[in-house]
Amino acid sequence: QVPLKPGRSLMDWIRLTKSGKDLTGLKGRLIEVTEDELSKHNKKEDCWICIRGFVYNVTPYMEYHPGGEDELMRAAGTDGTDLFDQVHRWVNYESMLKECLVGRMAVKPIAAPKANILMTLLFAGVLPEKKVLATSSAKDLSPRLSSFFFLFLLYPGFITSYDWFQTDSLITIVIYTKQKDMDAELVIVDCQDKQLRGEIIMDDHSYLVEVDLDHAVSEDVAVNIAEKVGKVEIILSKKDNIHWKMLGQPREGHNTFIKRIDRGLFFRKCKLVSKTQVTHDTKLFCLLLPKGTHLCVPTGQHVYLKQVIAGTEVVKPYTPVLPFSSLDFEEPPCHDGVHIYLMIKIYSHGLFTQALDHLQIGDYISVSNPEGNFKKSQVQTSEDLFLLAGGTGFTPMVKLLNFALTEVSCRRTVKLMFFNKTEDDILWRNQLEQLALKDERFEVQFILSQPSKEWVGKQGKISSSLLSEFMKRSRRDSKVLICICGPAPFTEQGVQYLKDLGYSQEEIHAFTA
Ligand code: FAD
Ligand code: NAP
């Protein structure tokens, strides 16, 4: 992030887009853009970028871009889709840049499909092997065997298929993932208004079942998982006890197995059920998932919230925590599977957090599927866990702490270094101190960068000396994991200090955007 000039905030941008000013220079005309034409618009004062086939004139946006002009210029005159996906796939550019739309890229002749494209097409049911969504059973899969064999050669271990059957009252959709250690966090189901969406996460890929159901079902959805064999069952209750001839009509993403990064974010509306003050500027928001949703946010992952602010869709990431009664940490985490708790700092000039703060109990807000590259196995195999948090960078540490202290048996120590400006900024201070008293494996240290005169604890900013003093291993060669999260420069500097102290890349996990 770079500091933006005054008058160049996101709100200012939204105002400019609503002002009726011609931001493309084309007086509202949409044109077809060739690659040749695109490449000519590669200067700051004339900069076009293509994202997913649509071309935008981003020159008016330059000064408003939180990542800075240079970052935007990396894609000038080219297809910036990959770059965009790497940095902020979650930003709703269609809404943010709609007034900058120049037009579509001209269609190029299609080259012969490559193997992996072929695979996607097959899973998408586009090739002739596609089965209509009639009642299918194991025997119906046989005509597809040859193509499955072909796919297996291309992608061993990742062949996923689905099947469905019914009783008088239930519809059961069975997905065979062929993935061992399948667990509930890898299955996300949404069933509302006859629309069913079931997504299964398999490493960096996702498999999707997405249909308009043939008949109405009740809002209760059950998910059963046979972990060892990787079988997932989604069980729906029929509203009427009639025999279904087919499951329903396939939607766009139905029966596809693609990279997660290529799957758009899916949002469902959640109800705000409570808002509790944590510190002077930070609140705990409790959101209720819809009845037909099955979703558990894994440790170390975040979700995106979406709000329409002044007519523009704005999306921001937040990391769910546990309710603080769970900070007891004697029992394994109680994911009730129904609520999502978010600890959010309200910035006095923050576009999104101000809007969040204005939500009333009973209002709805859109919440995405979980994302993030943290793997719990990193915690499972380490003996000493060091957590370095700055401000709300504490949020991913909450579930991590809980997981490390309740579910990992080889754990020797968990140490949290919590950096804040003042005493009043420390989140859940009492709970953390209580926990340290109760569990001898856990230690917490608060470090203040702007302490009052009365503060007798540590002070300063993250530094090599503070880190080396605090981060003592329980054994000379113990297996260590260090997790760090906070303001971007805090995290960047922290990682550098850790490397200077001799910790390897594998021993460090930095939570970033
Ligand atoms: P903006 O309108 O973007 O900014 C307005 C002003 O607020 C800025 O000028 C600055 O003074 C201040 N400000 C805004 N953002 C930041 C920032 N990131 N750091 C320091 N000052 C800032 N926040 C939480 O409170 N809880 C979370 O659990 C959480 N999880 C996150 C997870 C990820 C993966 C990431 C990348 C960020 C997370 N954030 C979290 C930050 C959050 O996404 C927003 O950046 C934040 O809420 C500010 O949004 P805003 O629109 O209100 O502020
Ligand atoms: P803050 O209160 O502004 O700062 C917390 C502490 O970090 C303060 O002591 C502050 O010291 C210090 N700090 C800030 N910049 C620093 C720097 N350059 N070098 C060293 N220390 C620095 O923090 P906040 O407002 O709560 O913001 C939390 C941040 O965490 C946000 O940027 C948010 O996006 C991020 N976050 C990320 C994730 C994720 O998963 N990626 C999750 C949650 C939060 P001084 O300001 O006094 O210097």
TrEMBL record:
GO MF annotation: an example: cytochrome-b5 reductase activity, acting on NADH
Cofactor(s) of this protein: FAD
Protein's UniProt keywords contain Flavoprotein: yes
Domain named CS: residues: 157-248
Cell compartments where the protein resides: Endoplasmic reticulum
Location of the FAD-binding FR-type domain: 265-377
Domain of life of the source: Eukaryota
EC identifiers of the protein: 1.6.2.2
Catalytically driven reaction(s): 2 Fe(III)-[cytochrome b5] + NADH = 2 Fe(II)-[cytochrome b5] + NAD(+) + H(+)
GO term, biological process aspect, one: superoxide metabolic process
GO CC field: endoplasmic reticulum
Protein name, entry field: Cytochrome b5 reductase 4
